[in-house]
Design a protein that fits this description.
Length: about 575
């Protein structure tokens, strides 16, 4: 995969133990810092240097940490649960959060079964007893799994894998999951129950496999435990906090629950005198220190999975399992990529060409973006939407850089009151020279009193300077297409003509009469500005016939220049000898 890296290598911080298999993929192009044992304060102090952060469950990726992470593009969770990551803040900052949704599923499911068996046969207690020189065969009689009812809360990936293994053990399977896939449940011989209460009363073994979210926090507390059989045993390899630890200790003490196998706790590692530590110490509990994902195989899987995604993101591509961005298939992304570049350029051209007019009134906030041809068949246009927001806003956003991307584009557009209507045109494009093209239309119907004034506050050096003699009121239209993977602009306002939106461009509107090119060329020449290419755009067909409107003999001149054009030169271009309007844009 080509990685466009110039200058120092981007830095990746790994504050936890992550398998070297994935890290090997990073080392060639990135500086990989493995720093274990950092305090939250130490982490906050250094995070500003890093573009990627790879964590497991121990690192708390808080809002405070994310805000200090000025360069951060991605938080990669080498595992499933992202409850230790403030995904909402990451989203608002445009930081992509990725995980490995299936790399450790089997490990978690097998660990659940290991705990189930250990609890059923008193393995933990028996092990401690024999090591203490005892031989307590009478006290340590267990129960069999075969024929017992396994009640599963959360029939997702881990829950289903547990069900399949338990089926092989001859267990009867029931589950509660309001969002379960009924055919997958049936194929795994699982009977779905309509409520948690219905599930709990039948459980010989209860196992939890949901994420820790508002609806699952404290879902097994005193009231629920009291509805269960006193012979029931409880397993938790999902997350601490789903079971009320104090209530479970009490139920075990009172003989209301027979035993528990617990891998995850409300505080990890457990604080002294905490509910977690009391649960761990309980003789009827088999406890493990969050080992569900800790197999060699699972750690290899998750490491490779997230490191590949980090490489993609730092190379400007999209990951395959982002938690806060839409999933886009690699083939689809490849098709979209040149159009993403095109749309971003169109947005930036819009902002710079139209909006930095002296009083900044013309930054319209309602845009139509119309996809035609092959683009109408795409599953998602989210990357194009994000590229448009990025293009529109980047020239007027302060340079210390808001990271605008697919993660936060919608939010940012909303915050700034920019309305974007995406449309797929069903028009036949067979007679057109390109298989797909895109039109950006800024609507003139908006009341000017609502027009944004961001541009008047702009301090961006890339914001264009435009000088003009007159300002027609109509929709502002930019049209473009991709050819040979390169973006082209094919229409700007009333003018049609092809040019590549790249570098510094001087765009002049002028009467289509002799001498204009010479006039502009000579003025630029005197100012030491070199012209690299030039394109002339006559009026678009729709506007050609409007004789007598004073505009039918106009054209656009687009010149690629090798440096910025000074204010004095810009002023000198306008006039009866010269052009009607001129703007400089940097794309
Ligand atoms: N102990 C460990 O080391 C590991 C723990 N895990 C944890 O296992 C849990 C499950 O992981 P996956 O199966 O991959 O997730 P998943 O997303 O595939 O499945 C979760 C299931 O929970 C269901 N669910 C959501 N809210 C529910 C509710 N209120 N009541 C009942 N069901 C509900 C969902 O519909 C879904 O089917 C996660 O919390 C994850 O962090 C995963 C891997 C290792
Ligand atoms: O993947 C998960 O959700 C886990 O709980 C595994 O956590 P870990 O990566 O072992 O700290």
């Amino acid at each position: 995969m080509p990685i466009p890296i110039h200058g120092p290598k981007p830095k990746i911080l790994i504050p936890e133990k992550v398998s070297p298999d994935g890290l090997a993929l990073l080392r060639e192009n990135f500086e990989v810092d493995e720093k274990k044992g950092l305090s939250p304060e130490e982490l906050k102090n250094i995070i500003g240097d890093y573009e990627a952060l790879i964590v497991r469950s121990e690192t708390k990726v808080t809002a405070e940490l994310l805000q200090a992470a000025k360069k951060l593009k991605v938080v990669a969770r080498a595992g499933v649960g992202v409850d230790n990551v403030d995904v909402k803040t990451a989203t608002s900052l445009g930081v992509i959060v990725v995980n490995s949704p299936s790399g450790n599923i089997n490990a978690a499911a097998e660990h659940t079964i290991a705990l189930l068996m250990a609890v059923a046969r008193n393995v933990g207690d028996a092990c401690a007893s024999i090591k203490n020189g005892k031989w307590e065969r009478g006290r340590l009689v267990g129960v069999e799994a075969k024929g017992k009812t396994l009640a599963i809360v959360g029939l997702g990936k881990v829950g289903l894998t547990v069900a399949r293994i338990a089926n092989g053990l001859g267990m009867r399977l029931i589950a509660y999951d309001p969002y379960a896939n009924h055919s997958l449940a049936a194929a795994a011989s699982v009977t779905l129950k309509d409520s948690l209460a219905e599930l709990l009363k039948d459980a010989d073994f209860l196992t939890l496999h949901t994420p820790l979210i508002a609806s699952t926090k404290g879902m097994i507390s005193k009231a629920e435990l009291e509805t269960m059989k006193p012979t029931a045993r409880i397993l938790n390899v999902a997350r601490g906090g789903m079971i009320d630890e104090d209530a479970l200790v009490e139920a075990l003490n009172e003989g209301k629950i027979a035993g528990a196998g617990i891998d995850v706790f409300t505080s990890e590692p457990p604080e002294a005198e905490s509910s977690a530590s009391r649960l761990i110490a309980h003789p009827k509990v088999v406890a493990t220190p969050h080992l569900g994902a800790s197999t060699k195989e699972a750690q290899e899987n998750v490491s490779i999975d997230v490191c590949e995604q980090v490489v993609s993101i730092l190379s400007g591509e999209l990951p395959r399992s982002a938690v806060n961005a839409p999933i886009i298939l690699p083939e689809e992304y490849r098709t979209l990529q040149p159009f993403v570049t095109l749309v971003e350029k169109m947005g930036s051209l819009y902002t710079q060409h139209y909006s930095s007019r002296v009083n900044a009134k013309h930054f319209r906030t309602t845009f139509d973006i119309i996809y035609e041809g092959a683009l109408t068949n795409l599953n998602t246009t989210k990357p194009l939407f994000a590229a448009l927001v990025k293009g529109l806003l980047t020239p007027i956003t302060s340079s210390d850089g808001l990271n605008i991307n697919i993660v936060n584009a919608e939010l940012l557009a909303k915050e700034r009151g920019i309305l974007i209507n995406e449309q797929r045109s069903r028009e036949n494009v067979e007679d057109k020279p390109y298989s797909s093209f895109i039109t950006l239309r800024a609507r003139a119907s908006r009341s000017q009193s609502h027009a944004r004034s961001d541009l008047s506050r702009s301090n961006s050096p890339s914001a264009a300077r435009t000088l003009k003699q007159e300002q027609p009121e109509e929709d502002q239209v930019i049209q473009g297409f991709v050819s040979g993977n390169k973006p082209f602009i094919s229409r700007l306002d009333r003018f049609k003509g092809e040019f590549i939106p790249r570098g510094t461009l001087l765009i002049c509107r002028n009467f289509d009469s002799c001498g204009k090119i010479g006039f502009v060329g000579s003025l630029l020449g005197k100012a030491g500005v070199n012209i690299k290419f030039m394109s002339v755009a006559p009026l678009h067909d729709d506007h050609e016939t409007a004789e007598g409107d004073g505009q039918s003999d106009e054209a656009l001149m687009i010149l690629g220049v090798d440096k910025q054009v000074g204010e004095d030169v810009m002023k000198g271009l306008i006039g009866p000898e010269g052009v009607l309007e001129a703007s400089v844009v940097t794309l």
